[in-house]
Amino acid sequence: MKKFTLLLITSFALFTLFTNCSDDFLATSSLTQSAADQPFTSVTDVNLALNGVYSVLQSSTLYGGDLNGWQGFPGFDNFGDNAFNQFKWEGPGLFMEGDLNPDSGPIRAIWTDIYRGIARVNLVIDKLMQAQNGELTEVQINESLGQAYFLRALFYFNLAVYFEDAPLILEPQTVANAQVPKNTYEEITAQIVEDLTFASEHLPESYPAEQFGYATKGAALGLFARVQLYNQEYDGEFGVLALTQEILGLGYELHPDYGELFTPENEMSPEIIFSVRFQRELGFDNGETFSATFLGTPKVDQRPMPNLVNAYYASDGLPITESPLFDPDNESANRDPRANATIYFDGDVFLEDLNRVFTGNSPTNYGMRKYIRRNSSDSEGVGASEPGSQDFYVIRYADVLLMRAEAMAETGDISGAADLVNQVRERVNMPRVEDVEGSVGQQEMIDIVRHERRVELALEGLRFMDLKRWGTIAEAFQRAAADPVGPYNPNYLGGRSEVFPIPQSELDVNPNLVQHPSW
Fold this sequence. Notes:
Elements: H1 43-57, H2 60-64, E1 83-84, H3 92-96, H4 105-130, H5 138-163, H6 185-202, H7 217-230, H8 240-248, H9 258-261, E2 272-276, E3 303-304, H10 306-311, H11 337-342, E4 343-344, E5 349-351, E6 356-357, E7 367-368, E8 392-396, H12 397-410, H13 414-427, H14 433-436, H15 442-457, H16 463-470, H17 473-482, H18 504-509
Helix pairs in contact: 1-4, 1-5, 4-5, 5-6, 5-7, 6-7, 7-8, 7-12, 8-12, 12-13, 12-15, 13-15
């Protein structure tokens, strides 16, 4: 099935807040571009404008990633104990060693792209509000607003997790009113909750196949659940338990083959709740490189750490330190199948068309397999190091099951949490909780869920977010430092190792901005 391409709207909302502000917009009568000063008169107009917002997600410093450049969210398992950013200058490596500062380009790029998306989506919202007495129906307006509010919530949640306090901008800005102060994390979160409440009420459950990729009701509920889990809001109308219960009834299911899920062929699996879509086509700059690799060794800038590899149990469900099935001379044998689907071990073939073997030529001795291309070029001649068409899965059903399991464990529903963990394990034929761990208490169940999240979601960019909300970043630094990887010296610096600084360039042009206290 041909992938639906979200068009780039390069003339829509051209300004970027703080660093490149302008109140002069390019007017156009183009059939493929929507100008900021033209009213919405049709659903086509709205979709073109929304595509301009979705295109920001494709940025390399957000979800597009890079092979040899500043890392986006697909590379964020480099923050913590899951992976080593061998090209330290890309950002995560500097952060882990305590050498990143407010002048660092990677941090500035993330901040700028997030606010570029916020600027665009605020303009869409403003124009939709103006269209309420025009050509569009109320249902069309609310559905489009639902997409816009979802996207704004996604931008602001990433901002809140990694920067904490930041300007909360909810309407189009001009040079005259661009110099705004920070808002608190709590104020940003309250707006995220408001936006996702509207989105989850007005977005449809699905779209036609050719529009796969637009935010749905499930996407809004899934992001909402992630936000509430991060804030430890488990109960109530908008708690994790209620939100995930609603998702369970929307028809999502686990993909039968975990290893094949992270390939272009299975991007439309019923497990995928929301993804950032990519399609490499001539004339469109919306390819991705997070799945790209060099030909001599897999994915240099995200190397699986030994402590992650050791976290995968043997196939009998026991830790490798306890299982009689584990063979230290053949580490990949008799392991949780997710280990071999996520990681290349010494001796594995990593480029199938060349029959090229990974020789362990990595500082960690392991290579990244999940998402990474498996041939030196594809059927269209696109090389493994060139921009490709692999979608990045922002929210998938297994994550929802584990979010719900965590909320149940945290609120004392041990059996309910175990049932959900069992669902995730059964997909890869791993033993059930009751058959291995047996009867467990609440803290044991919490630990089981946390472990399951690590091995199920490894190298999907969520690890730092999990560590931060659990309050275990310091321990993760210790695990990373204890691994025999060099030259690599993780250095935990308290708050500076848990939050990004506001870019110095933003402080320089906006006297109302104040740096985070940890910096």
